Amino acid sequence: MRVILILVIGYGILVLLAYSCQDRLTYFPSRFSLSETDRLAGRLGLKRWPSEAAEYRGLISQTDNFTPNGTVVVFHGNAGSAMDRVYYVHALKRLGYRVILAEYPGYGGRTGKFGESSFVADANRTLQLALKEFGRPLFVWGESLGCGVAAGAVARSGIPIDGVVLLTPWDTLPNVAHAHYRILPTKWLVRDQYDNIANLKVYQGPVAVVMAGRDEIIPNRLTLNLYDALDEPKRVWVFEQAGHNSWPADPMRVWWEEIMKWIRIQCSSKSLPGQPQK
In angstroms, rounded to a whole number, what is the distance separating the alpha carbons of residues 96 and 115? Predict the structure, then answer.
């Protein structure tokens, strides 16, 4: 009985630690001052957006020498900052798009709280500002954690999104946690749900899903669970030999163009692409 009691107490402590430390297990931000943000962004050919410090919520590509085909708002993964995702600018600007690398509260040069509620509300505001300033077409791109943020924002924004790209997404975050911590009651422990299936049920526009065939972080079955639940139009790209962080980010790879071309074709076939359901 004493051994059983010790095991129960130990398990209870483990569960309590997991619950209290889950933000540290989910979010891994890099932090910069605003002045450092401006300096680093300038080196990369980017600038803070919007320019006012109080409204700053990401980095934007320069489009002085061409008229963009549209705006792509990128929500990045859980580590680092928007500064680390300049490969999206290199790839998508080459295809004629304005790119906004959205930054999360508490990341980069921004203040704020971690968590789904905070991130999704902030992303919602980012999409509203992007639409107001640049108009349509407006596309949303999520990478890993950013898939959850993007799907949540699309569900709640109430604005027309012309296409969504999800790179290494999942169905729900508790399912991801369960895949890694089977000993824990993750269904009840995980505060941030990031239920991509439920959130994308309200979206009628095209969704492109990109899966890493050897993803060691997001099991393929969870990505396929989401894909199977999506309504048409949808399409999946699979990088068979890629891991979660080793997919081909080279901006000259043809898949970038394939995805954006596919999305634009789907949009052209609809009179009101991306309108949320009423």
Answer: 33
Residue ranges of the domains in the chain?
A: 29-268
Q: How much of the chain, in percent, has pLDDT values that exceed 90?
A: 73
* Tokens 């359901």 found at: 277
Structure confidence at residue 89 (pLDDT): 97
How far is 87 from 250, CA to CA, in rounded Å? 7
pTM, 2 dp: 0.92
* Angstrom distance (rounded) from CA 173 to CA 169: 10
Residue type, 201: K
Per-residue pLDDT tens digits for 16-54: 666 666 788 799 999 999 899 999 999 999 999 997 767
C-alpha span between 260 and 268 (Å, rounded): 12
Closest among 81, 129, 74 to 98, alpha carbons compared: 74
Residue type, 252: M
Q: How far is CA 222 from CA 70, 171, 247, in A?
A: 31, 5, 18
Whether domain 29-268 has CATH 3.40.50.1820: the reply is yes
What are the pLDDT digits (tens) for 168-201?
Answer: 999 999 999 999 888 777 777 889 999 999 999 9
